[in-house]
Amino acid sequence: MTAPGAGRTTDLPTRADVESAAARLGEKVRHTPTLTLHGDELGVPGRVVLKLELLQHTGSFKARGALNSVMVLDEGTRSVTAASGGNHGAAVAWAARRDGLRADVFVPGTATPEKLQRIRDYGATLHLVEGHVGEALEACREFSESHGVPLVHPYDTVETVCGAGTVGLEIAEQVPAAELVLLGCGGGGLYAGVTAALDGTVPVQPVEPELCPHLHAAVEAGEPVGHGAAGAAADSLGPPRIGRLGYETAARHGTTSVLVDEESLLAARRFLWERVRVLAEPGASAALAALMSGRVAVHPGSTVVVVVSGGNNPALP
């Protein structure tokens, strides 16, 4: 059996690759809505459009990449495995159940109870691993190799990236006036996919918490490097390192991440709930935090799209 991504070159995915993923996924994933805010609501000029990916199947954008990866597996594949801080695990469990496959999901003990329950609810076999996401991914790799089961990577295969990139195709259709897209960056799959989908027509700015600066550290080092993760967003934006595809996308475009502090991140999350009634998880609030804290400037009359990527950690601080 061939795991997703096996045999591919190091070439970055293209818009055509993302369009192929979109054709494959069709109506199997939700075309999530947008919500427009006047800049005055946020204390910024211009217009801010929220892309509400927390309304996607399984509560995050991860459903797109997981299902695209499962749909290209070799015929006759009966099971898959994945490692996750929670969102990707639920997405793989959902995608596997949809296609009648068994799913073994490895999750660190630091994952939130809500995300663990969601994985169980989709019928996966849950394996709790002591430590953080890196340890869960290593345990998952060992399981994949010893059992001959394809590993659906959370952010660093072409299939996962292109599935995530279908968010970008929808943004292009829904917000043709967009001049900038902001999104949270963990492993870099969403960033790489949306960048490929928009193909230079709209700049894409990744945002990271100061306590999870994986892309930022990689750009400084000139290559992906291991980095710790802490804070409220660590369960969704705290991989062991940025993915190769995310890093190479940033290197090609001369981009690094904007960093936001914990206070700004949680303030953006509170704003989304208290003013918009959008209950995003902390990591999904990072992009909006970059606007509200002034780390990213909004020019008068411009339109900025903010991807609200997930909502699977419901308890507000």
Notes on the structure:
The chain has two domains: 15-61 and 157-308, Rossmann fold (3-Layer(aba) Sandwich); 62-147, 3-Layer(aba) Sandwich (Rossmann fold), CATH 3.40.50.1100. The chain has 13 helices and nine strands. It has helices spanning 15-25, 39-42, 62-71, 87-98, 113-121, 133-147, 158-174, 189-198, 214-221, 234-237, 244-253, 262-276, 286-292; strands at 34-38, 47-52, 79-83, 102-108, 125-129, 180-184, 204-209, 258-260, 303-308. The strands form two sheets. The protein has a six-stranded mixed β-sheet with strand order 1-2-9-6-7-8, with helices on both faces. The chain has a three-stranded parallel β-sheet with strand order 3-4-5, with helices on both faces. Helix 12 (262-276) packs across helix 13. The longest helix has 17 residues, at 158-174. InterPro entries: Ser/Thr_Dehydratase, Ser/Thr_deHydtase_PyrdxlP-BS, TrpB-like_PALP, TrpB-like_PALP_sf. Keywords: Lyase, Pyridoxal phosphate.
Essential attributes:
about 325 residues; alpha/beta; Rossmann fold; 2 domains; six-stranded mixed sheet; three-stranded parallel sheet; 9 strands; about 40% helix; disordered N terminus; Ser/Thr_deHydtase_PyrdxlP-BS; TrpB-like_PALP_sf; lyase; Serine/threonine dehydratase; TrpB-like_PALP
